[in-house]
Amino acid sequence: MSGEPKWIPTSSYIKETRLYQWMKKLGFDDYDAFLNASTDDIAWFWKEAEKALGIEWFHPYTETVNLSQGIPWPKWYVGGKLNVVHNAVHKWAEKENTKDAPALKWEGEDGEVRAYTYQELKKAIAQAASGLRQLGLQKGDVVTLYMPMIPETVIAMMAISQLGAIFSPTFSGYGAEAVATRMNASESKMLITADGFLRRGKAVPMKKEADEAARRTPTLEKMIVIERLGSDVSWDDKKDVAWSEMMKTGGASPTPDVASLPSDAPMMLIYTSGTTGTPKGTVHTHAGFPIKSAFDAGMCMDVRPGDTLFWFTDMGWMMGPFLVYGSLLNGASLLMYEGSPDYPAPDRLWQVTSDHEVTHVGISPTLIRSLMKHGEEHVTRHSLSRLKAMASTGEPWNPEPWKWLFETVGKSRIPIINYSGGTEISGGILGNVLVKPITPITFNTAIPGMAAAVYNEEGKPVTGEVGELVLTKPWVGMTNGFWKEKERYENTYWSRFPDVWVHGDWAIQDEEGYWTITGRSDDILNIAGKRLGPAEMESALVEHEAVREAGTIGIPHDVKGEEAICFVVLQDEYTFTDELEKELIALCGEKLGKALRPSAIFPVDDLPKTRNAKVMRRAIKAAFLNKNAGDLSSLENPEAVEHIRQLGKTFKKTN
């Protein structure tokens, strides 16, 4: 059902992976037996996982997990004390063989490059922590980070953690209202931002938006401004502080100790957009997010010391912090890139990957679809010889871009690690491990430690049919509720089936054990009683040579319940005609069955996407039906929504 494997690891390759070597150490040589053991006894598994990652504790824990408050509220590593800064930076900076190893590399869109060894990064973090303490930051205070992908972003995160305060990263492309909403929800005491950053050759005036957000946040006391561009910005001497001045003050002051914190001490708040209402503040701890993301990167993606992990993302999305902890807790180096993946030329992503000798690169399917159109010459002009794995997250794959990435970029030798989870997960639920064959667009396993299943509407586990992706046991990294919204958290994930986390994705697991995500469960189409994941129809459409990208939604229909409406971005050399629409509708019928053919297909210049190139289907649906889509502040191209809104009005008049 899942198709023939395209990447098959050799026996010698398998034995060299960190995952296999760890399995053998624990007494397993069969992966499936190990996977079952990882969820049969979660206390044993997560104790062994933190040991395998070399987590160092200031005070040892006495119990791996305590479920006395119920499965939705586990307590992990009870009695233990630690700090993420020690495990991510200090322990490597204090060892002779790793102190001078590269920890952080950065390239700006203008070509500027900076790098820090572990020792240098430790020193910069200490200066920043001292400077923040001088400004009044205390344990438990919340600091919002509204920053581009620059080294100071990582330094600020770690400095805040060193003091035992809490950071809340927000998307660098947000406007003032979206930033203020999150700052007020978290009652932020400080905001760290930049005067601006570069995006497609233009200066983005970040301080201007930050000023407006600050005016709307009564709890805010200080705004620290990084001089990324050195541009003239408005200044409030009572509130604004230059990063350079703060670092100078910090360098002249005693270095604060790394705070020894309980395992469940909050480290980070990330706000996720809701379909309605205010964003949800996921709460992540010093022993949660870092350990889960480091485990997934280290054991599942085989990141190790000497490697370089690069994910094209933003610190306001989950994969930004994942990039930081997934690399540093494993003693590897992380690469940050400030700009666009295709500017000033379509080969920029591959140039950055090559120049910095990246071993693990993370992208999204939509990003690959956008790069495919430029042709393979932009890939082949760069040496990707150091590349060991390509990872993807954010949305389901279509077969054609997956094939292009595997064959054109990876030369049919580099595995694609399909990876899916979420902000509330701290990493992945499903993935591709390197000890098993990989087939196109699927996942070859649930991530070890994740008790994943597919449930039907009655709450029964099913194989071979689409259902809700669920988790039946807690895991390290599970959000510790929503910030000051206990009931909303329980209603969101735990209200449908007793003691079962319902993730919100439709998935299917076939008889061979391969998993496929077909879309968000609130995106699913139900046409005349037949359930259809939008990705299935989108995959059919992009098989046509004229179609570059596609988006599918379901809208109400008097007879069928729902009907499918599709939106396509055409290749440059094609024009949309009635004949082409008929061809595409027929193609969908051929692939999916006549009953599931879309009622209409519309050409658009672009689909609504987030900064990390994820198509936002609920924005498409809400616009087409002329309804409120909830929080759309993460959209990169809001003009695409308005175009679709106008199409919806026209469609309504003619039907």
UniProtKB/TrEMBL annotation:
InterPro entries: ACAS_N (IPR032387), AMP-bd_C (IPR025110), AMP-bd_C_sf (IPR045851), AMP-binding_CS (IPR020845), AMP-dep_synth/lig_dom (IPR000873), ANL_N_sf (IPR042099)
Domain AMP-dependent synthetase/ligase: 96-481
EC number: 6.2.1.1
PROSITE patterns noted in UniProt: AMP_BINDING
Occurrences of domain Acetyl-coenzyme A synthetase N-terminal (ranges): 31-88
Keywords, ordered alphabetically: Acetylation, ATP-binding, Ligase, Nucleotide-binding
Domain AMP-binding enzyme C-terminal: from-to ranges: 536-614
Protein family per UniProt: Belongs to the ATP-dependent AMP-binding enzyme family.
Protein name: acetate--CoA ligase
Source organism (scientific name): Aliibacillus thermotolerans
